[in-house]
Q: What sequence folds into this?
């Protein structure tokens, strides 16, 4: 009797097209995925690295601490005189921890520029002892490693406004790759499933097989975190993604628009201690918070003139998720608005939390460790995937 020949089942239509899309997109955007994953991974522990490198600038000497810090206006003038920049001081971040320095920021952008180094006119951070006015450290953030890594990750060093799409499009394709990768990985039966979850290299000697397992198994484990990373990334790039999140969380595509109140005391002479009045009230309202930021140049992030003094209060150190918003009259320092984090809609709360979700800081130190590991694995996928494709290509060439 003749033995029956066992023919391999042809892959389903879904798996067939998943394989094609996975390959095409991988070859087209693999290098960008590699760069974006690597720079994002290196950025995860920015706060921890800087807190070590800048320890002497961040903390003031215990013997210099007095009951009352110097006026913000006085400190601002000291910074302007000593740093001697042509640009005005943009803002100050004041920690509630009395052992820490105030952080004065210089930040200006050129709207006509096309790349990161031309777009950022100045990004300089000055650490100041608030009790004696001593400058403890001046850092040119424009040329610091972490802001450059962030710009590469965000826009490949192109202008942020449109460079984000250069990264955003490959990220969308990467999301499709992750989904098609899960479809291709999914085993047909229980027997095949055993080999998909763990490495079994006892009888495996070739590096090609080991490379395939690295891509296949590690790719599966990292894919779900990578999806969260990618979705929180395109949230920044595309309004339609943000609108989808907003609608899902709060039933409306648009976030509530903040009404900027005009200062009712505009006919009064400006109080020279208006920033100190705002700071004093902020400390009283949110004594358990981490820090708060006050703009000092009378402009918002887009360069538009402010009609009052908005103060952003951060709930936890190194996080942006918990934010309380205050507004004070720019002439008298009278409190106009107090909007605690708890009063925000779910969509507004997520809008504040998305950065922390993307960097892993939302989940604490363990979240950062997991995100860092996931970033390394995402960085490896374009490499191991390319080696698989290249190996198959060479094998087909030899057959021909």
A:
């Amino acid at each position: 009797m003749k033995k029956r020949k066992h023919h391999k089942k042809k892959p389903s239509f879904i798996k067939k097209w998943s394989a094609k899309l996975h390959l095409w997109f991988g070859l087209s955007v693999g290098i960008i995925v590699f760069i974006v994953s690597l720079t994002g991974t290196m950025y995860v522990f920015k706060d921890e690295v800087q807190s070590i490198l800048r320890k002497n600038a961040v903390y003031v000497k215990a013997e210099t601490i007095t009951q009352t810090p110097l006026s913000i206006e006085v400190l601002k003038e000291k910074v302007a005189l000593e740093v001697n920049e042509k640009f005005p001081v943009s803002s100050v971040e004041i920690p509630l921890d009395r052992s820490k320095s105030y952080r004065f920021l210089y930040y200006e952008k050129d709207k006509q520029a096309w790349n990161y180094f031309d777009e950022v006119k100045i990004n300089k951070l000055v650490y100041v002892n608030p009790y004696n006015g001593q400058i403890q450290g001046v850092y040119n953030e424009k040329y610091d490693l972490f802001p450059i890594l962030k710009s590469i990750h965000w826009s490949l060093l192109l202008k942020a406004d449109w460079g984000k799409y250069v990264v955003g499009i490959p990220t969308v394709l990467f999301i499709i790759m992750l989904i098609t990768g899960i479809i291709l990985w999914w085993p047909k039966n229980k027997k095949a499933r055993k080999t998909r979850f763990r490495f079994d290299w006892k009888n495996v000697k070739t590096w090609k097989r080991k490379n395939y397992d690295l891509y296949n198994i590690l790719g599966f484990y990292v894919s779900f975190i990578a999806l969260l990373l990618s979705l929180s990334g395109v949230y920044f790039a595309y309004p339609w993604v943000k609108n989808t999140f907003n609608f899902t969380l709060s039933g409306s595509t648009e976030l509530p628009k903040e009404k900027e109140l005009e200062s009712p005391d505009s006919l009064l002479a400006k109080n020279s201690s208006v920033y100190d009045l705002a700071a004093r009230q902020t400390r009283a309202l949110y004594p358990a918070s981490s820090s708060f930021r006050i703009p000092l140049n009378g402009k918002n992030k887009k360069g538009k003139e402010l009609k009052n003094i908005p103060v952003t209060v951060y709930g936890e150190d190194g996080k942006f998720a918990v934010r309380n918003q205050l507004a004070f009259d720019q002439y008298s320092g009278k409190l106009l608005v107090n909007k605690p984090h708890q009063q925000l809609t779910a969509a507004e709360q997520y809008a504040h939390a998305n950065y922390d979700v993307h960097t892993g800081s939302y989940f604490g130190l363990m979240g950062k460790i997991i995100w860092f590991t996931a970033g390394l694995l995402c960085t490896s996928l374009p490499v191991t995937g390319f080696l698989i494709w290249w190996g198959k290509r060479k094998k087909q060439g030899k057959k021909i």
